[in-house]
Structure formats: C-alpha cells, structure tokens
Write a structure and sequence with these properties.
The protein is of the alpha+beta class and 420 residues long. The chain folds into 3 domains: 72-177, Beta-Lactamase (2-Layer Sandwich), CATH 3.30.450; 180-268, Signal transduction histidine kinase, dimerisation/phosphotransfer (DHp) domain (Helix Hairpins, Orthogonal Bundle); 270-420, Histidine kinase-like ATPase, C-terminal domain (Heat Shock Protein 90), CATH 3.30.565. It is 53% helix and 22% strand. It contains 9 helices and 13 strands. The chain has a 6-stranded antiparallel β-sheet with strand order 3-2-1-6-5-4, sandwiched between helices. It has a 5-stranded mixed β-sheet with strand order 8-10-11-13-12. A two-stranded antiparallel sheet has the order 7-9. Helix 4 runs antiparallel to helix 5 and helix 8 (315-332) packs antiparallel against helix 9. 19% of the residues are buried.
Length: 420
C-alpha cells in the first residue's frame, strides 16, 4: 500500500513538472500568436480603410468626369514659373477645336486667340499670376486651325497652388464652347433691332402717310366746295382737272399702302413661278398708262418688242415692280418719251424703264434711294414707298434693282432677274 502511494505521488509530481515546462515553452509561442493575430487584424483594418478610400476616390473621379462630360468642359493648368500650358481633360465635342500639345508655351496659346481678344486674356492671366486677382472670367474668340473661321470660348480660371509666401505657382481653369449661346445672343439682338426699327418705321409711316393723305384730300374737298360757285367754264375745267389729279394722287397713296401691307403680310411667302412672255406684261402696262400718255403727250415705247424673252418667275411681283417704275417715269416726264426694254446678260435678264424726265442728282443714285420714305423732291406728292417696294419684291425673287440717271436728262430704273 505504501509502495502504491509513493508511485502515485511520484506520478503527480512528474505531471506538475511537465505542466510547468509546458507553460514555460508555450507562453512565448502563445504571445507570438497573439501578436501575429493582432498585426494581421491591424493590417486587415488598414487595407479595408484604404480600399474604402480608393473606392470613394473612384466614385468621385467618375462623378468629376461625368460633370465635365455633361458641361462639355476642358480643364487646363498653367505652370507660372515655366509658363507652360497643359490641356489635361477635354470634353468639347467639336472637331474644329484647337488641340494643344502638353507643356506648350502660354505665348503660343495667345497666338491662336483673335487679336481683338488676346489682350484681355493676357491681362487676366497676368492678374492671376501676380496674385492681384483670385479668379478671372472672359469670353473670347479663337482661330480654327488651318482656317479663317473662328469659334467662341468662355473661360474661368483661379489660382491652384501658392508658395509659402502666398505667391501663385500655378493656375487651373476651364474652357467651354459657346457658339450656340452667341448665336442666340446675336439673334436676340437682331430681333430687338428689328423691333426698334419696326417701331421707328411705324412712327415715320404714320407721320408721312397722314401728311401725304391730307394734302390731296384737302385739295379735293376745297376745290369741290369752290366748284359749285364757279360759273366760268374754263375755270371749272381747271378745278375739275385739279380734283382729278389729286384723286389720282390719293389713289396712288392708297395703292402704295396696300402694296406695302401685302408685302409685310406675306413675308417669306413662296414665289408663284410661271412661264410667260415678257412682251405680254409690258404691253399690258403700256395700255394701262395710255390715257395718261395722251393727256401729257409723252408716248410709251416698247423697245424690240418682238425679241423680248420668255421668263419663268413670279409674274405678279415683276408686274408690280415695273408698274412702280412706269408710274414714276410718267409723273416726272413732261416731254420726250418713256421707253421700256430688256437686255440679256448671260443667265440673267435686266428689264428697264427709261424716261427723259427731270433726272436725279448723282449723289442720290445709290442704295439709299430705295429705302422707305426717301424722296428726291420733298415738294412732290408721294409716300416715298414705291422704290422700297420694288427693292423688297426684287429681293424676294433673288433679284436686284438699280438706277442710272443724270440731272435734267432722265433716268433709267432697272430690275435684274434670273431667266429661269
């Protein structure tokens, strides 16, 4: 029994020595394992944070590119010490846009800007580079490469980096094509101009027309009242002729008003082209003025009537132009004759009305004569609309009008149109 107890005690003692030994050997291993696990844990956390940061940066980069694409912007940098210009990102969707090589001198960039805009761009960049300004914003025009054309840009810029003393080291900016915006601005400005011009013309029209209508109307009313008290036959005939003349003037004024109103109303109305003999139109107009021709003793002659061409254009508009010319010729010609003719010039034909009347001074034989309310003699009745109507009608037919005249020797008014 004693032996057995001793054996048990010896066994327990051995086990205790083995446990202590295991702890002595295992503790460093355990500590090393704990440290390794902790290091792996920290590394995993760091890696996770870096991945999250990279993911956020990627998202921000996508959003950044998306904004640039949506706005169709270009991003550029200017290194101030080296004066080198770099176009980093360019989403402007135009094939004619300048493409600058990286690191190009800013002076070479200035060379491609239109001279009238280059100075203000230089001034803005200098203000940023010197630190006198923080931002700049300009609109300017740049030359299309290998072309005489140009395009519009809008630029924003600001200081990007500074040294320890606050002196700018680099500038960052954006560029945007604004051709469409400029087109809209120009269209709006033109619309405003036309609105103002229309208002001015309306006022001038009312002033002129009221005066021109009042003059013959007063004569008609005045002479009609006097006519009932006149017994002398020759005097009565003289008053009747005056009334008749003022009636004709009044009707002519209303004709001009109606012609101008129709012209304004139809605006861009398409031409009503037809094929017709010019001879028929000229003979029709000559017949219309036969009574006046007999009254004044001034004949109307059609030159080379059998050789007149066949035309394909708007007959009514051409007739109205020639009617205006013929009416003026009969009004200002007291002796001699009025001649209507035609001259072919290649694929064009020039139809003219020539008179032997009072003529027009050289200083007035220009485009100004065909503007509204322009009259050679302010003391002669008329609205000053006739020649303006002629020019508008000719332009609507892709034609031209003109005049050749000498003071005291007569005038030749013409309209030139394409034959077909």
């Amino acid at each position: 029994m004693a032996v057995t107890c001793m054996i048990v005690l010896f066994s327990l003692h051995s086990l205790m020595r083995m446990d202590i030994l295991a702890w002595i050997v295992g503790l460093p291993v355990l500590l090393a394992a704990i440290i390794l696990l902790y290091y792996q844990y920290r590394q995993s956390r760091t890696l996770k944070s870096e991945m999250e940061l990279l993911s956020k940066m990627k998202i921000h980069s996508v959003e950044y590119d998306l904004v640039l694409k949506a706005m169709k912007l270009a991003i550029w940098h200017l290194d101030i010490p080296t004066r080198s210009f770099t176009l980093e990102t360019d989403y402007r969707d135009a094939s004619d846009t300048n493409d600058f090589p990286p690191g190009i001198s800013i002076d070479d960039v200035y060379q491609r800007i239109l001279p009238e805009d280059a100075d203000k761009i230089k001034k803005g960049i200098i203000e940023l580079a010197s630190g006198r300004a923080d931002v700049y914003h300009e609109q300017f025009q740049m030359q299309v490469p290998h072309s005489n054309r140009h395009y519009w840009l809008e630029g924003f810029a600001t200081v990007d980096k500074r040294d320890f003393q606050g002196k700018p080291l680099s500038v960052v900016g954006t560029l945007m094509r604004i051709d469409q915006q400029k087109g809209i601005e120009n269209a709006l400005m033109e619309a405003v101009y036309h609105a103002e011009e229309s208002d001015r013309l309306k006022s001038a029209f009312l002033a002129n027309i009221s005066h021109e209508i009042r003059t013959p109307l007063n004569a008609i009313v005045g002479f009609s009242e006097v006519l009932t008290n006149v017994e002398d036959e020759s005097e009565r005939m003289s008053l009747l002729n005056l009334i008749k003349k003022n009636n004709a003037d009044l009707l002519r004024i209303f004709d001009d008003i109606m012609s101008m109103s129709k012209l304004e109303a139809r605006g861009g109305e398409a031409l009503k082209k037809s094929t017709f003999k010019l001879k028929d139109v000229l003979e029709e107009l000559a017949d219309k003025y036969q009574d006046k021709s007999k009254e004044t003793g001034v004949p109307i002659v059609i030159e080379n009537v059998e050789q007149l061409p066949i035309l394909n254009t708007d007959r009514d508009r051409l007739r109205e132009i020639l009617n205006q010319y013929l009416d003026n010729a009969m009004k200002f010609t007291k002796e001699g004759q009025v001649t209507i003719g035609c001259t072919s010039q290649g694929d064009k034909v020039r139809i003219w009305v020539r008179d032997t009347g009072i003529g027009i001074p050289d200083t007035m034989c220009n485009e100004h004569l065909f503007e509204r309310f322009v009259k050679v003699d302010e003391f002669v009745s008329g609205t000053g609309l006739g020649l303006s109507i002629c020019r508008s009608l000719a332009l609507s037919m892709n034609g031209e009008v003109g005049v050749e005249s000498q003071k005291g020797k007569g005038s030749t008014f013409w309209v030139e149109l394409e034959k077909n």
